[in-house]
Amino acid sequence: MNKSFDGLAALVSDVIEQNPLSGKLFVFLNCRKDKLKIFYWDRNGFVIWYKRLDKGRFKFPKSDALSFSMTQEDLKLLLDGINLDKLKRFPELYYQAAL
């Protein structure tokens, strides 16, 4: 968890194989899951947002994948300490036309 701007940009580019200049938010979690960095490009420079929990751990969704996508709502819930694996939601519905 000691990488800064250039190190995180290299991780995004080389390991995750994404463009660090895309404007997407990239979330990094330490091994103990009590520290989190959000890294992104903001028009004219990189931004790192860092959060350390005094108690508890972040509850990341279980995944074997190196990276995965999450919604803005999921990120907010994660930062609020909600366990996304135990969250029950109504299924999202898709329709071709309205009545």
From TrEMBL:
InterPro entries: Transposase_IS66_Orf2 (IPR008878)
Pfam families recorded: TnpB_IS66
Cross-referenced PANTHER family: BLR8292 PROTEIN, PTHR36455
Family annotation (NCBIfam families): IS66_TnpB
Protein name: Mobile element protein
UniProt organism field: hydrothermal vent metagenome
Species lineage: unclassified sequences, metagenomes, ecological metagenomes
